[in-house]
Each structure stands twice: as structure tokens, then as C-alpha cells.
Amino acid sequence: MLFQPVWKGQEKEELVMEQTGRTKNGTSLSEKDLLIEQGNKKFMLGDYQGAIADFSKAIELDPDAATAHYSRGLAYIGAGQKGLAKEGLMKAIELGYKVPPEALDLCKLG
pLDDT class for 3, splitting at 50, 70, 90? Predict the structure, then answer.
């Protein structure tokens, strides 16, 4: 897949977690960030429905989590749900996330 979910403000490598739920620098992740981490792992394994569920839970905890909206939009693309994907990506844009135009192109219905 062209795109993969990301974490807000941190590189993927910085959020590699041990079973303790801590980042490499020793700080604890919030429940929202743990859900995003889980969703990203499921996404990378092709479990788009599982990823959508985790990203949705993260959004319930923080409706303004732009990266969760973006990541859920990508998972919807993977699941073939282009209408929901576009909604998620547009919400991420509304919240200030810089969504690549190519991601939106993948949402075109037709």
C-alpha cells in the first residue's frame, strides 16, 4: 500500500513500544496512543477491520485526534470503503493534518 498510518508529532521509530507501553525514551503512552499503536500494527498486517476498530476507539477518547482520523481513513481505503475513507481524511484535514493528495485520489468513487 502507498500509505501507512502515522503518529502525531513523532516518527514511527520513536514509538516502538515494549510490552510495558513505553516509548524508547521511557515515557508512557496515553490510552489513545496505545490504541493508535495497536491499530497501526493491525493495519500493517492487513487487518483493516481491526485497525478501524482501534482507530475508532482512539477517536472516541479524543475526537480531535487528527492522526487517528487519517489512519482510520487509510484503513477504510484498505477495506474498500471509499466513502468512509474520504470522510475520515477530510476530517483529518479539517483538524489540520496534511493529507497527501494521493490519499484522497484513492477515495474517488467510481
Answer: low
Residue entry with cell 498486517 = 45
Identify the CATH homologous superfamily for domain 17-105: Tetratricopeptide repeat domain (1.25.40.10)
Query: Where are the domains positioned within the chain?
Result: 17-105
Longest dimension (CA), the chain: 47
3-state secondary structure the chain: CCCCCCECCECHHHHCCCCCCECCCCCECCHHHHHHHHHHHHHHCCCHHHHHHHHHHHHHHCCCCHHHHHHHHHHHHHCCCHHHHHHHHHHHHHCCCCCCHHHHHCCCCC
- pTM for this model (two decimals): 0.77
Per-residue pLDDT reduced to its tens digit, 49-90 = 999 999 999 999 999 999 999 999 999 999 999 999 999 999
